[in-house]
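DATA SHEET
Item: assembly model
Revision: 1
Owner: S.N.
Input lines:
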Amino acid sequence: MHQLWEIASQPDNVPIVALLFLMPFYIWYAFRQAVQTDKLILQLETNPALAKTHHRKVFPWKAGWDREVHVWPYLMRIEFLVAIIVTVILMIWSITLNAPLEEPANPNLTMNPAKAPWYFLGLQEMLVYFDPWIAGVVMPTLIIGGLMVIPYIDANPLGNGYYTYRQRRFAIWTFLFGFIFLWVLMIVIGTFIRGPGWMWFWPSQTWDHNRLEFAVNRNLDQIFGIDGSWLAHVLPQSWRGGAAIWARTIFGIFPLGVYAVLAAFFVHWLCVRTEFSRKIYQRMSLVQIVTLQIFMVTMLSLPVKILLRLLFRIKYIWVTPWFSV
Amino acid sequence: MPETHSDDPVQSRSMSGALLISAFLLMLTVAWSLYDEFYGLRPWRSYQREFANVYAKYLRKKMPEQRDREKVIRSSAEYQQLKQIVDNAEEAAKPRLREIDRESAYLDKRLAAIQDTFTTARGKVTALIYEAELAPLDSASRKSRLEEVDKAKRETYALELPTADARVEKLKWNFTQIDSEFTTLKARKAALVAERGDVLKAAKDAREKRDAYFQEKMEGLTADQLGGLLRAAEGLDVSIHQVNVNPTNAGLNNFGSGGLVDRCQSCHMGTDSKFVPLAMTLTKKDLGLERSKDAPFTSHPEPELLKIHDPEKFGCSPCHGGNGRAIDSVEKGHGRYEHWLWPLHYAENYQAGCQTCHAADMVTEHAPVLNHGKELFRSRGCIGCHKFEGFDDQPERLLATRQQILQIEKQKKEYEIEIPRLNRQADQAPDNETAQKLNGQATNLAVRISGMDAKVEQLDRKSRSLLREDKKVGPDLKEVRMKIRKEWIPYWLGHTHEFRPTTKMPQFRLEPDQIQAIAAFIWQSGVAGPGLTKQQPGNAAHGKDLLQTRGCLACHSIGEGSNVLGGTFAANLSRVGEKDNYDYLVRWVHNPRERTRPYCPFEKRDLGPEDYAKHGLPFLFDLDHSKCPNDGHPLQVQQPTVMPNLRLSIEDARDVAGYLITLKHSDANYDAASFMDDPKLKGAGLKLVKFYGCAGCHEISGLEDESRIGTELTTEGSKPIERLDFARLTEDAQRGVLPDEKKAPRGSWYDQKGFFEQKLKNPAVYDKEKYRPNPLDRLKMPKPNVTDTDITALVTFLLGSVDQQLPREYYYKPADARRDIQEGWWIVTKYNCVGCHQVRIGQQSVLQTLPQYQGDNKIGLPPVLTSEGARVDPAWLQRFLANPALSTTDTNRNGVRSYLQVRMPTFSLSDEEIQKLVRFFAAASSQESPYVPPKLDTLTDAERTLARQLFTSPAAPCLKCHATGNPAHDKTATAPNFLLARNRLKPAWTNRWILDPARIAPGTAMPSGLFRREGERWIFNGPLPAVAKSFTGDYSDLLVRYMFQLTPEEQRMLLSRTPAAAGSK
Amino acid sequence: MPEENGGKGRTGLLGKVQQDAKALKEFVKEKGKEGLEGLKDPEKTQVYRSIFRVKHEDTPRSRALSVLTNVFFHLHPAKINRDAVRYSYTWGMGGITFYLFIVLTFTGVLLMFYYHPTKIQAFRDILYLENDVPFGKLLRNMHRWAAHLMIIAVWLHMFRVFLTGSYKRPREFNWCIGVILMVLTLLLSFTGYLLPDDQLGFWAVTVGTNMARATPLLGHEGPFGSQLGMTPYNDVRFALLGGSIVDANALLRAYIWHCIAIPLIAAVFMGLHFWRVRKDGGISGPAPVMLASEIKDEKGPRPVIMKPSGLDQHSR
């Protein structure tokens, strides 16, 4: 616990601690409204007559009330209020907590653990499971790209401009999974759990710099004992040398392929589970479906790899002379 | 158009409440931030206020005391007397003063009266003259204008001038008269003013005398001065007090872009000489504040230091550490927080600050703790394993020199092959030109080779002196077979500190089998012979006497437990009898440097008679015969010990050894150690000996070139904490739990200080809770034999040993005489000169502390060297240090003070060392070098006769005490021979000496007051012989000149005349 | 006036004087009254008008004008969906983010007065800020914490926008801009991390940029990087740091990116973002719910019908 406090009390970690409270709150806040809306939706769907007349909002409404209000003062006042409150919070925070300043930079003295800024810790955590080129470059690109294509692959016209759950189950789950589980959670792990040598320390454990861990990580092909001996027979004499490498390269493609297919089917299954979702699925153009699949499959590969690594200590699935996955 | 609906929640809801509250909160936070800025972050404000009033209180209390003091002094007889003188002088001056004043008053009046008229008249005349000058020479107009001038001069003015007898005279004067009158008045006035000064002089001088007396009698400041301080304290304006230093290369350490800014004095106001003058000390008690942590107001404990390190130039943090800029909290300011690399030194280690800049000094004034630390680091053999810049590095330098030599010789060989080849080519050359060219090249190479020989010869010289300087902390283990009792070795390895509680040797943590292996290796690697000459037993009683009188105790100690007697520089001899072989001991005492076999650094082995035989040479090696018969390079012909040769006769040596051999515990017996000869153990032993770095302190065959095994410590103090391996103790250290589970008084000890302290207390401590089945995996640093004070000293030394972090000009790297002092101390301490001599004023030699040299026996002490540089001729000192017997034949004596029991030993120093020592003494008594002996004018016969008579006069029979070389007479002599003076002494010093010896060497046997001042000259203080009448010169000078021109015959003649000496005949 | 009291001698004169005096009094009183009027409602004064152009009354028109005629406010529409003013819908995160950006600019500019992006001075300057500069500590703290807060705010903003499906037609593109802005925010914070030149920043940035080594094709440790002749001295990381290690150049680059380049870019995108919010029909909701039954089942993109939000509600 002492250690946990150590970390949590680090001025720079305050935002993460704050995040720990803010996220749940806002999720709850959003879903409370979603539930209300969904009640209304249910009501309206069962009662078309009402649907004709109802103003279709959960908020109270009386005929004759303005449908619109003036920004001044009705919005402005809120903005001012918020601005003031934020300022107050910020100032109190700044008076009570000092921004960290450590020793002058010293290239010869490596910090252990050397951590990236907290908001990138998710990616740094990914380094455990993937090579830097994936965790550090490909993933960020995919994340940005993925976020950007969302509007274009989401063919569901419903739930535009109001909180709802039943009308967008798939979308919301996907996003929650991506944002909360794959991003925020990883950050939390990176901050509180990862100690010296980026080793896994439970909050109760103290960060011992001399701690040693023994872990052999094997590649999938090693488990299957791929040494290219069989390939050697087929190959011309001059190529024999690289047999093992080629064998691995080729072998690696299969598990990936298998995974891709399975994942794709899983995603497909998700998309056609309910009659409603089928309807949405219908609306999607081929391009949209493909894009959706690509991103979904990649995203799902993260937890899969994490599990493979943590449970079966598997380092690489696919080993090639140039890169490994 | 829609009006707002009162029932519409969106529109009708009012937010003014929320807005009001939040606005109010905003106000509060703003106010808070303001408070924080002006008070929260400025604790020094309250400190300053508190200081102001406690200090004021103190001053108010003090002022009356001081005033009383002053009264006492003022009422003292001397003061009154001086005051009387002043009053008299003033009285005497009064009448004349009165006249002067009266007259000058009159002059002033008269001048005032005449002034205006004078200026008008003069103005008129000068203007006309100018007009005239404009006109061309001897022109009509000029002439007429000159007449104008004359007219003007003749023109008269009406004057009313006061006269001396207070009347007013009406005059009609022309310009000339006025002018002369005016000038005379002026002149007179000037004269009066001057006279006034003369009249007052006597009184003025008397007054100065009186004040001077007052000053010296008055301790502390006067009431008025205190009053000034009090006013300053009362009117103190609360503001930051800071020192700004703008060094040339800012940017190092915590020197900001604006240079160094130290605001320490914003709270530590007592150290600010603006408030508390250096002359004044301010203690917690004075201020009535026992806990200074709430009120850091005491004045600087060492004002002396502040005088040489003016805070305005040095600041505070460069010496003390801490974050000089930060003043928002104590811990910030003291830099005692994570991430600040230069925290404030703790009180017990504050001298670490000195080391930062004085790393090059072996002895630093004002820093005893640091000095002790350095001394320990060297004498306890830390240096044997840990390299440290500036400390003895002869092994490394020797190695380097040897490499160079080998290099050159290789080159030389190549050339030697090349030459004939070139010649051959020349013979077959197609044409003359080429032939000549080739031959030319050949000759050049030949010349080059000769040049190389010169180089090699130089390098050999160098390595010869290095071989002389190269000393080991521990004894030469090649000699064990001759020296040591076999069974004792394993016991010693296991019970080092039990056997000899004062030993320098650390206790290694060895397993029994390791001990056996090491012991066996040491034993088997020792040289076997040629065997020692068998010695007859010596006379122990006489030996003991010699031991105590010859000065052995300056370094060695005898006796155990509470009755230890002697110095700590070398081993305690109380149990030597249990381990040493008598024959060897005799040889050792007779000449400790004597080796059984010489060591050849090129062949890397000890040479035996056979090697010499090969070349048909006798097996003879010493400092004069140190050439290797095989390769001609210098040999190590001495044992690497600092113990000097006391030039005892072989008989005396036997007696001393005979005594030493009796020093043993009656119950001493050691189990047989048959394994010592087991060849199987040798290999294992060698590994271990290498592993534990034994060769760092001992000479061991096969390991002469071993390098130091420990980490270099030159900048250990600034090693990042992450690099110091607290291992399993890391967490405890951070939580302030000591290895013994006690709470650390200062809380967390996770810092350099903590690490060093624990490591030195118990070098194995960081193996705690570690699994190390193989002893070779454990921490190998042995347990040093140190007390807690020693540890503090060592830690201080290490904490101060940091990498360059201050601007260059901070470092003490003098180029002038002070550098000679710096270097000299390394030698002085290396050979423990301070064991026998007092070298620095205030320092005490070991001998001075011994009981047998108290009271009248002080005469038996070696000379005090505080003025050595001024006393002796450097050239002579050089000779003396090389051969203290000042004789090659009769060596069993002191060269200068043959009458002294204590023996100035032969250190066989290297030339460089001697040079350094000579320069050291010269610099220490601020002598210019090189020294050119002054020419003394030869004595006239009259002078000589007078001098003779004085020399032999019963009032001061010089030869009564001073040695003459006549054995009969010298038995009673207690002072050096005059014949030495000519080459040895400096006349100026000799003069000072005979005038007042006690001033130079307090407690000397030489009588003071031999001369008395008479007018401008010193004359002999006793019945003057008749011849003296004619002599008008200075007596002391005369005697000095006589002394310096003394010849043996002359002296013999004198001796016959000396009454006392004659009596002793 | 002469004809009123013509011919009456002294009294007339006296009366005239009295009259004038009274007139003067009247005059002064009147003027004084006007003055007071002016003070009573400053909106009538010339100064006020010159500044605000319209006087403010509680009429819808003037309310609208007060927004429309104000350069700062006119980011907003004159009127918005009555329920959109509810905090529960927007969480105000977008606004907070923008506000924090302003705070950061403000504090940042002040900090720039005291900071030199050089190896020698950077760290000292922070010490200087902490110990010497009035309010320096507060300034630095506020800058740091505001930056962290902004990141959180951005994330929550994105979260909210997603949950309300506000990225949907017609706001797809604005969502993309939003994503870019988020990335820029992270980059801003990251570049600022190095500036104090202390261990924390140094290693954080080292770790961060080390990933760039592994960029496929462009990093010397990335896939096919070496095959394409990438070395530590010509790859993308070198470009980022202006060197193969984090050193003076990296510091300078971080400084320029942090203080000039990214803020400019971000400002542009922000403008775009806000503008699009308006043009895409104000904030997305709270919109009336749409029912599954009402989905028109034509595929592919539909033409976007641009209507100011809120007016399209009872269009059926």
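QC remark: The beta strands of chain C are 79-81.
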